Amino acid sequence: MEGRERAYEEEASEIRDRELGRGIYLTAHIHMVTPCRLSPPCKYCSISSSILRIRRLRETLTDEELVKSVKRVEKKREITSITLVGGSDIKGQGDLLIDVLKKVRNVTDIDVSIDVGAPISIETLQILKEEGVTAIYSSIETVNRHAFNDAKPGDSLDLRIKLLHDASSAGIPVGRVIMDGLGSELDVMKSIDFMQGFRDVKYLYISTFNPVKGTPWENRKAASINDSLGTLHMPGTS
Ligand code: SF4
Fold first, then answer.
1. Which residue in 17, 65, 70, 183 has a CA-CA distance of 20 to 30 Å to 226?
2. What pLDDT is stored for residue 238 in this prediction?
3. Can you tell me the mean pLDDT for 217-221?
């Protein structure tokens, strides 16, 4: 078993070095740049907490706060890109995103990615691309439809998948978050495998469910960080 794990690690290291090199680059995540209007909000999200202090962690930044955050990042030479993290709105928030991006572009020409819920129209995706957005991320925490709908009753799995396909068709690299702790271990693997259907995946993040106080899932058992790390070693996921 140990020998097999070492072989997976060596293979994964080889792929990493070949595809990404050995340099480490830092990305600053700035959130929330747009409001989340899902109703109801996701059961694990701080927005659904009954505790005001926790809910406020997901408040939308004012224009001044956004510009100040971007300026702070700009000063740090080790940070080479920004990910603008926004909320979700089934009706879309294309105009808001374009507005946010313009405000960022007034300050810096740094590499920018956008991480939001769906949808974004093809026209807006084209505008974002022209403004230099280098990737679109949308969290599809699990491809298990039942588990997705249970955790995210106000969200749409189909719209999130469509957003990644639309961005990909527009020639924009894509990425997503998978959450360990939603669905089974097999679902995590299927969720990783699902990304093979996209031609340019820039980012795949495996997060680990951790209950937040005051949310509907505050008493749910936390997922194990070791299990999340373990998914990186599973056959077929390297
Ligand atoms: S889409 Fe994101 S921000 Fe909105 S409720 Fe769900 S986890 Fe929270």
1. 17
2. 42
3. 96
Token pair, residue 195, equals: 């990304």
Question: What token pair was written down for 194?
Answer: 């699902």
What the chain holds in terms of domains, given with CATH numbers, is 2-139+152-175 (3.20.20.70)
- State the sign of the Cα–Cα–Cα–Cα dihedral 127, 133, 135, 140: negative
- Which numbered atom of ligand 1 lies nearest the CA of 32? 3
- Mutate-to-test residue for ligand 1 from 88, 155, 156, highest number of ligand atoms within 8 A of CB: 88
Which residue's alpha carbon is nearest to atom 3 within ligand 1? 87
Bridge-based pairing state of the strands 174-180 and 133-137: parallel
Q: 45 CB less than 6 Å from ligand 1?
A: yes
Which residues are 84's β-sheet partners?
30, 114
Q: Does any ligand 1 atom lie closer than 6 A to the CB of residue 88? A: yes
Single-letter code of the amino acid located at 100 = V
Model confidence over 107-158: pLDDT tens digits?
999 999 999 998 999 999 999 999 999 999 999 999 999 999 999 999 999 9
What is the arithmetic mean of pLDDT over 47-72?
Answer: 96
pLDDT of 181 > 70? The answer is: yes
* Residue 236: pLDDT over 50: no
33 lines ligand 1 (CB under 6 A): no
pTM: 0.89
d(CA 188, CA 194): 10
H or E stretch including 126? helix 122-130
The tens digit of pLDDT for each residue in 163-177 reads 999 999 999 999 999
Decide whether any atom of ligand 1 lies within 6 Å of the 151 Cβ: no
